[in-house]
Amino acid sequence: MFWEKRLGSWVEGIRSRTALPLRLELWNGSRLDFGQQAPQVTIRVPHASALTYLLTPSLFNLGKAYVEGKIEVEGRAREIIAVGSALARNTLQPEGRFARIARSIHHTRKRDEEAIRYHYDVSNDFYRMWLDENMVYSCAYFEQGDEDLGTAQLKKIDHILTKIRLQPGHTLLDVGCGWGALVMRAAQKFDARCVGVTLSRNQYDLARERVKEAGLADRVEIRLEDYRDVTGKFDRITSVGMFEHVGARHLPEYFSKLGALLADDGIVMNHGITTTDPDNGETAFGGGEFIEQYVFPHGELAHLGTVLTAMQRGGLEAFDVENLRRHYARTCGIWVENFEERADRIRGLVDDKRFRIWRVYLAGCAYAFAQDWVSLYQVVCTKANRDASTLPWSRRYIYN
Asked: Please, are residues 302 and 244 in contact by the beta-carbon 8 Å criterion?
């Protein structure tokens, strides 16, 4: 049959280039191994129609086939992603439709709000299953490299608050405050007066509850509010894992708004994921397409160069830049381990499709950061054209 010849030719072509710990099990009982070693990953194909996903194994096609139940995959998430990436690399050309294509998305307030709620309002219990005890959903900071996740997340928050030189009595705005961990820490340890804003109802409700339970309601206010509607002036502003939702073309407006909210002698810290493609292209081999459809609707990653240019156009000067790519690879790796260990409990919280989406998404993120497909930068800014004589001359203050 035609499909037997094409499938056999495809498998042999890959085997001639590399050995993969992969086995295909077909609906007719046939087994095809991609290497001599024992398979770590088994893909079960229940019907010939699913072969179209395999024979053009972009990360989008493979992810879609798994998420939609067209194929069954057995193995640990890390190995599944590594094998899927190898299939893509050894079958597809990294150009044309499978290149790191830059997409320009039209953002509106309504679309941004819908995207945020799609991603974050799964359920608080779902996120609690695999995040740390403070529910920090962003890159941790492994100062020594051997910290547990909870410790590394707390160190990340302290690292940020120390970088921005937060002082007692300062006002702090946290844009995209999540479940409130940063503003609570800022109030508890640094005695700051904080406002956190989010568009997620679930985050808003739980963050307010946590603030009240911690006795911080007099110093921390959580708002269900778009950052564009915030008014006033703040001594310090943080944005952690939020600007990926803004859109590349809107970054100058975003930074301009942060600058308008910043006191003249204030400091802004933007912590966010960037693409490593200088042309602002998304993850290659269809990885970005999968994330757009199933995980982060309307999300866009910009290259660091684009980010720094947008900051300057928005009236901000970059004062300190730090690459934490390796830290995010480790963070996502721990999230994947937590997700796998608690898989049975997580399945009880979401439907099978959502479970599959998040399983491959988290593992895919760990792989993408490890491969330098995407990165993570913390950029500390001040207002442009200001007198910088009060700023430290070195980075020593961060570590003292």
From this structure: no
SS3 135: coil
Question: How far from the centroid of its chain's Cα atoms is residue 157's Cα?
Answer: 17
**Rounded Cα distance, 196 and 175, in Å:** 6
Q: Are strands 171-175 and 193-198 parallel, antiparallel or unpaired?
A: parallel
Q: How far is C-alpha 399 from the geometric centre of its chain's CA atoms?
A: 26
Which superfamily, per CATH, for 109-399? Answer: Vaccinia Virus protein VP39 (3.40.50.150)
Q: What is the pLDDT of residues 204-248, one digit of tens each?
A: 999 999 999 999 999 999 999 999 999 999 999 999 999 999 988
Cβ proximity of 235 and 172 under 8 Å: yes
Catalytic residue from among 139, 194, 332, 365: 365
In the chain, alpha helices (H) = 2-17, 51-55, 59-67, 77-91, 109-120, 124-130, 149-163, 181-190, 201-213, 251-261, 287-294, 304-313, 325-341, 343-347, 352-370, 396-399
Distances (CA, A) of 274 to 33, 196, 224, 266, 382: 37, 23, 26, 25, 21
Q: Which of 342, 178, 317, 346 is nearest to 259 (CA)?
A: 317
pLDDT tens across 26-62, in order?
A: 999 999 999 888 999 999 999 989 999 999 999 999 9
Instruction: Name the residue among 121, 308, 108 with its Cα closest to residue 228.
Output: 108
Domain regions of the chain by residue span: 2-92, 109-399
Does residue 194 have an active-site annotation?
A: no
User: In the 3-class helix/strand/coil scheme, how is 186-232 assigned residue by residue?
Assistant: HHHHHCCEEEEEECCHHHHHHHHHHHHHCCCCCCEEEEECCHHHCCC
Q: Say what percent of the chain tops pLDDT 90.
A: 80
Report field, pTM of the whole predicted structure over 0.70? yes
Q: Count of CB atoms within 10 A of residue 264's CB?
A: 9
Return the residue matching tokens 């944005």.
Answer: 239
Domain 2-92 in CATH 3.40.50.1000? The answer is no
Q: Which two tokens stand for residue 368?
A: 């993408």
Q: Cα separation of 17 and 30, whole Å?
A: 22
